[in-house]
Each structure stands twice: as C-alpha cells, then as structure tokens.
TrEMBL record:
Descriptive protein name: DUF4231 domain-containing protein
Start-end of Basic and acidic residues biased regions: 179-197
NCBIfam families: SLATT_1
Pfam families: DUF4231 (PF14015)
Region Disordered, residue ranges: 179-213
Compositionally biased tracts (Polar residues): 203-213
Organism phylogeny: Bacteria, Bacillati, Cyanobacteriota, Cyanophyceae, Leptolyngbyales
Length: 213
C-alpha cells in the first residue's frame, strides 16, 4: 500500500498525495491496540506535524528552485547581451545596455532574497524533520528499529512520544536560530540612524563653569 502511495506522488499534486498519506496513516492508527488518547496523539501531533513539515519542505523547495532557475537563466543571458551590444548601434545599443543592467540587478536581488529567507536551508531542515518523523512512525507501527524489543505498541508508546517531541524540538530550535539570524542581518543592513539632537551642555562642564573672582 505504501509503495503505491509513493509511486502515485510522481503523477499527482502534492496536496493529493498528502491527503492519501493522511487517510492511510489514520486508518492504520485506528487498527493499533492503543488507548484513545494515544491514538489522538498519533493523529493530532505526530501525523499533523509530519504532514505540515512535508508541506513546508515542498514550499521552501519551490521557492528555492524558482529563484535559482531564474537566476541561472538571467546570468546566462548577460554574456549574450554583452556580445550583441558590441555589434549594435543606437537606439538598440542603449536598450541592450539597459537590459544588461536589469538582468544584473535581478541576479543580485534574487541571490540576496534566497540567502535572506534561507529557502535552501529551510527546505533541507523541513525535509529532514519530515523524513525523521515518518521513519519513527513506521518503526513504531511495525515495532522495529528502536522499538523492536517491545511486544505491544502500548509498551513502546512512551518512547515513541519522546522521539517525536525530540525531533520537533530540534526543528523549532533550528527555525528560531534562522529567525534570529535574519534579524541580525536586518540590523546590519538597516543600521539605526544617528540622532542629530544636540545635547544640552552639562552643568559640570569645565568650559561653562565660571571661576570665582
């Protein structure tokens, strides 16, 4: 069943794939011998977080690849326009020079945006977290890997929760670090303006203190 889901991902939209995956895991969880609150945790916490991170990974990938592909096209076009510019006369010469400048600005801005928002790094981070959660879920369902020593899902559930929360916590820490990094970059790129207000002379300033006669 899972192989069929993986195979259909190449032929359908990611949203459809996530819905199929969600439905499949919900059905599987319902058949596990767990307490209702344990099943609720698996669907409301583990499955929800895994699907959310998978979706975020796809969004970050799309942003990263969209910007990078356009930057590659623009960068490759610059030498072509330079070569054409050498053989052109007015008014085409001015237009081509303008196009070269515009393409150069586009490449610079694109690279800055991609680096500022860390699309590539976030793509990797969300992808890694989603796959780790998925792996933990499959190992728990099959009682394999870390959970192979347990005979019942109820016995392994406590450790499953620890693993899931550990993965989520690490993801939050990475996201927080990226947010702080962007704030620092904003401060560096937009330094606070210096105040032009003149401070009042200090009463203890020696230059303003009259010496007694």
């Amino acid at each position: 069943m899972y192989k069929k889901l993986r195979g259909s991902k190449d032929h359908k939209e990611e949203e459809d794939y996530n819905e199929q995956l969600k439905s499949f895991f919900k059905s599987t969880i319902e058949h596990l011998k767990l307490e209702p609150y344990q099943k609720a945790y698996m669907t409301g916490r583990w499955l929800d977080q895994m699907l959310w991170m998978d979706k975020k990974s796809g969004a970050m990938r799309n942003h990263h690849q969209r910007i990078r592909s356009r930057m590659i096209f623009a960068s490759a076009s610059v030498p072509l326009f330079v070569a054409i510019d050498a053989k052109c006369t007015e008014p085409w010469e001015s237009l081509i020079k303008l196009a070269i400048v515009a393409l150069s600005i586009f490449v610079t801005v694109g690279a800055a945006l991609d680096e500022f928002y860390s699309y590539g790094d976030l793509w990797y981070t969300y992808r890694k977290a989603a796959e780790l959660l998925k792996t933990q879920g499959w190992q728990f369902i099959e009682l394999s890997g870390r959970y192979r020593e347990y005979e019942k899902h109820s016995e392994a559930f406590e450790y499953f929760v620890e693993d899931v929360e550990g993965i989520i916590q690490r993801d939050v820490e990475v996201y927080t670090t990226e947010g702080l990094k962007r704030q620092e970059e904003e401060k560096k790129s937009n330094p606070p303006e210096r105040s032009t207000r003149l401070d009042a002379p200090s009463l203890t300033d020696s230059s303003n203190t009259r010496n007694p006669k």
